[in-house]
Amino acid sequence: MMAEVFGSSDCERFRAGFLRQPVNALSSLAFLPAGWAVLRAGPGRTELAVTTMSVGVSSFLAHGPGGRFAHWFHDASIAWLLTALARPPGWIRWAIHGTVGWLFARAPSSRKPLSILLAGWAFHRVFRNHRSDPAFRRAAAIAGLATLIGNLSRTGGPLCRPDSLLQGHAAWHVLAALALARFGAAPWRTDDG
């Protein structure tokens, strides 16, 4: 059932073969150089860099060969990335990582509501700590554009073209990766979190 549900809102038509949604799978790889850019930006960013790259790998697997593990890894890596963005104290962060991984495996129906809660929490904390930073505002503008394109091009949306090489979900991947790279490379205060 997960194979049928995953990606059903991403517009791109499923195909037979290793890359079931080739445009969405290949565009997922944009998170790898984004994570590398975050890693090279300075100390204290390893977790954000690793979780950014894990989103790229997991999304490639989920849009590509698929399978139960790929879908769990995809959803868990996004939750881990959101937690890394929120930057709670270390023990809380690792407790959330473990709980999310376990809960997503045991109760797949918890994935969407918990991800929405984590996104709200992460964006609140990031906005609170960085709202006056021009680099954050640029990253937020890119993320906003990514969200707009992603939502307009969902299955049934006005920009959805299932057989096109121009996929809105793929644009979301690239723009979200760019936003993370821009945010991760911006100066961080030591009291963030």
Topology:
Elements: H1 2-5, H2 22-28, H3 31-41, H4 46-63, H5 68-86, H6 90-106, H7 111-130, H8 134-152, H9 168-185
Helix pairs in contact: 2-4, 2-9, 3-4, 3-9, 4-5, 5-6, 5-7, 8-9
Textual characterization of the structure:
- The chain is mostly helical.
- The protein has one domain (2-185).
- It has helices at residues 2-5, 22-28, 31-41, 46-63, 68-86, 90-106, 111-130, 134-152, 168-185.
- The longest helix is centred in the middle third of the chain and has 20 residues, at 111-130.
- The N and C termini lie far apart (38 Å).
Query: How many structural domains can be distinguished in the coordinates?
Result: 1
Query: What percent of residues adopt helix (DSSP H or I)?
Result: 55-70%
Give Rg in angstroms: 16 Å
Task: Return the average pLDDT rounded to an integer.
Answer: 89
The number of strands is: 0
Biggest sheet record: none
Helix- and strand-based class? mainly alpha
Outline, from the CA principal axes? globular
Distance between the termini: 38 Å
Low-confidence stretches: none
Strand-residue fraction? under 5%
SSE order in H/E notation? HHHHHHHHH
Total number of helical segments? 9
Write a brief caption for the model:
69% of the residues lie in helices and 0% in strands. The chain has 193 residues and is an all-alpha fold. The protein is globular.
